[in-house]
Amino acid sequence: MELILTHLLPLIGAGLVAGFLAGLLGIGGGIVTIPVLVLVYRKVGMPEAWLMHIAIASSLTAIIATNTSSVFAHHRKQGVDWSIVKGWWFVVALGAVLGSFFAKGLKTAELVYFFATLASLVAIKMMLPFDRWKLGSELPSSKARFVAPGLIGFFSAIMGIGGGSFSVPYMTLYSVPIHKAVGTASLIGLVVSVSAGIGYLIGGWGITGLPSGMAGFIHLPSAFTVAIAAVLMAPVGAKVAHMLPRTVLSIVFGIFLVVATIKLVSGI
């Protein structure tokens, strides 16, 4: 409770920004919430050994509410391709659970640089006029179609993000319109956050030395505070997304990835 009372404003601020980005770009907002959570947790004396695990798990829990709100907002504007998620959800969920278990004993530096490299390449693709640069006219239909969704779930769970940073560029490479990709990424992010959240809940259960208010690695008071603020802003972001031209939205997404990369490499 001390954490909530003494650090209410930064938690609410992080939630508002995360919710807006969730609606605007189809991402869960973990790149925004995790740095704030780490800062707050360190100030209130959370165990350093589990600091990042708690921040990631709590961020993913907040993302559940954020992406739920974002999905409804995009669905009302016919911006969600449910058929894509129908074919992906199981492997995304499996990848997310495996990623959360893998993260328990992970040294994240290598994965941070991997993500930063990938995000930089994706940012170039989204910000420059590469509209004709496609891997195909439609998403893969062979057995290999399960590889990318599984990896999206796996790495999203490790990094504490909803997966839009991966799934939006992937879908646009296969000719899914950017507005449809953003809306669909919100639903994919919901699958990631629920699955990975369960994984972190199980993975952190029974660990000694964690403060009160924990469910596994999830710090419930801060997660709920961020979630409430994010839910208020997600519909606003979704409304803005559908007002923007396709080119502008692509550039905004590219800029977001550049900022995310800088934050990750600088060691959040």
Overall description:
- Helix content is 74%, strand content 1%.
- Strands 1-2 form a two-stranded antiparallel ribbon.
- Helix 2 packs across helix 4, helix 2 runs parallel beside helix 10 and helix 4 packs antiparallel against helix 9.
- The longest helix has 26 residues.
- The two termini are 24 Å apart.
List its salient traits:
single chain, 268 residues, mainly alpha, two-stranded antiparallel sheet, 11 helices, 1% strand
Overall 3D shape: globular
Rg, nearest Å = 17 Å
Catalogue the unreliable spans: none
What sequence of helices (H) and strands (E) makes up the elements? HHHHHHHHHEEHH
Quote the beta fraction: under 5%
Helical coverage, percent range: over 70%
Order of strands across the main sheet: 1-2
**Terminus-to-terminus distance:** 24 Å
